[in-house]
Automatic annotation (TrEMBL):
One of its GO terms (molecular function) is L-valine transmembrane transporter activity. The lineage of its organism: Bacteria, Bacillati, Actinomycetota, Actinomycetes, Micromonosporales. One of its GO terms (cellular component) is plasma membrane. Residues 5-235 form the ABC transporter domain. InterPro entries: AAA+_ATPase, ABC_AA/LPS_Transport, ABC_transporter-like_ATP-bd, BCA_ABC_TP_C, P-loop_NTPase. This is Branched-chain amino acid transport system ATP-binding protein. SMART domains: AAA. Gene3D superfamilies: P-loop containing nucleotide triphosphate hydrolases. It comes from Actinoplanes teichomyceticus.
Length: 246
């Protein structure tokens, strides 16, 4: 099967607390694959396991044809797994340009990478703010800059943890456009609570519930799944279906 990422029987526990109890997940190249589920379902934990920030208690993670289960985060990053975090990792005292330069591994000046930096800033709509200190950016601008920094490393697999959290409606629409505009060579796995964003952007949706994946399918399949309605979407499904039918 054509796949970029496969998690097979992945378990994770924090001390005595089992959080993931047998995750089987396949992500195809070019997908915008959403992970949804109730608070505490283990979505962020799964992203961290894929990134290599933690090791699973059991199971295997395959990426680009290799078993990377035991590979450290840096090695996975060099192999093309990039991510943004729920909490910002930007350097507030540096400028927008300097942050992207560091993401490119070009040192903070990044003189020889000017064009690449400009292109990355344009791709996230920050082309007018290269010399602005990050500390003065809005929350939404920071989130977009984080995506530019992650893209600077030219990931094949980009992991985004709640990219739309804390954004206004207009900012979310801009984010959806940005992520839709990424080339198909960048596969995206994202955790998101905002179901409008999920259903606008995702090509596949996996629903986590009680430590396992309840269902994976197209947005329509997930929206219509009775199990998913019962376990998670509930009344919100009806709202989303109405919005989609309108
Ligand atoms: N470092 C940690 N140590 C102990 N327990 C943790 C740790 N990180 C997460 N947990 C617990 O693991 C469970 C899953 O957390 P996780 O953040 O992966 O869920 P999530 O689905 O991303 O939730 P949310 O949607 O609220 O962000 C929760 O019960 C959480 O309290």
């Amino acid at each position: 099967m054509n796949e970029l990422l496969r998690c097979a029987g992945v378990h994770h526990r924090y001390g005595a607390l089992p959080v993931l109890t047998g995750i089987d997940l396949t992500v195809v190249p070019g997908a915008r694959h959403a992970l949804i589920g109730p608070n505490g379902a283990g979505k962020s934990t799964l992203l961290k396991l894929i990134a290599g920030a933690m090791r699973p208690s059991a199971g295997r993670i395959h990426y680009a044809g290799n078993d990377v289960t035991r590979h450290r985060e840096g090695r996975r990053a060099r192999a093309g797994i990039g991510r943004t975090f729920q909490h910002s990792t930007l350097f507030g005292s540096l400028t927008v340009r300097q942050n992207v330069a560091l993401g490119l591994g070009a040192g903070r000046a990044g003189r020889r990478h000017r064009e690449a930096i400009d292109a990355l800033l344009a791709s996230v709509g920050l082309q007018d703010l290269p010399e602005v200190p990050v500390a003065t950016l809005s929350y939404s601008q920071c989130r977009r800059l984080e995506i530019a920094v992650a893209l600077a490393a030219r990931p094949r697999l980009l992991l985004l943890d709640e990219p739309a959290a804390g954004m206004s409606g207009e900012e979310r629409a801009r984010l959806v456009d940005l992520l839709r505009g990424l080339p198909p060579t960048v596969t995206v796995v994202f955790v998101e609570h905002d179901l409008d964003v999920v259903f606008q952007l995702a090509t596949e949706v996996s629903v986590l519930h009680l430590g396992t994946i309840l269902v994976t399918g197209s947005p329509d399949e997930v929206r219509r799944s009775p199990e998913v309605r019962d376990a998670y979407l509930g009344a919100r499904t009806v709202e989303v279906s109405r919005a989609a039918d309108a």
